[in-house]
Amino acid sequence: MGKVIAIDGPSGAGKSTLARSLALRLGFDYLDTGAIYRAVALFFLERGIRPEDGDDLLVEALHSSGIRFSGGKVFLGERDVSGEIRTPEVGHYSSVFSARKVVRDFLLDVQRSAASRQNVVVEGRDTTTVVFPKAWKKFYLDASTAERTRRRHDQLRDLGLTITEDEAERDVVERDRRDQSRGIAPLVKGEDAVIIDTTDKSAEVVLENILELVRSDP
User: How far is it, in rounded angstroms, from Cα 32 to Cα 72?
Assistant: First the structure.
């Protein structure tokens, strides 16, 4: 297995932006675990699969999904769904379905296989504690709820979606509640992860801070 830099943290903390930039600067591959879960949610929704459906149905569907992450994009078979997965509805159901053990077990191998032959920067909500507990470097990004709400609102607006700031805040708070309270692999800070507060910090400043930490201990 190659070197793994794992980045955890809540929605809107800046994980995706940082991970992409960090991978580019270091020459590592980039893996967005959240995109994988969102793609699964999109796949289930399009096939009429609901959260209350049984494990056997979910597992059968997963094996036919053809889900993969390559070149910074997530695919269902040959279909690039990187843009389609960013809606609030898919985000909601990705959090709901991620609480199912059969889903997490199936995607664990998908995620780990991405680091089997190359160095990767991976980000998500349980990458430092469950997916890559022995990662080379671990970081936990966080930011205030107000900051994360602003970022979420801007993200959805950039995607052409109409949403109020109050709706964006409810989305962030509800996502936090689900991620932190789920019985399987809840969002927590790994004991050996370095905490980085990104509130009021530009993406460039956060990137340089983490690069300094990575390079100080090769």
Answer: 8
- Label residues 132-148 b or e (16+ Cβ within 10 Å = b): beebbbbbbbbbeeebb
pLDDT string in tens for the chain (218-residue length): 679 999 999 888 888 889 999 999 999 989 888 889 999 999 999 999 999 999 999 999 999 999 988 877 889 999 999 999 988 889 889 988 988 999 989 998 888 887 777 899 999 888 898 899 999 999 999 999 999 999 888 887 887 778 888 888 888 888 888 888 877 777 788 889 999 999 999 999 999 999 999 988 76
Say what the pTM is.
Answer: 0.81
CATH number of the structural domain spanning residue 144: 3.40.50.300
Give me the number of domains the chain comprises: 1
Domain span including residue 67: 4-216
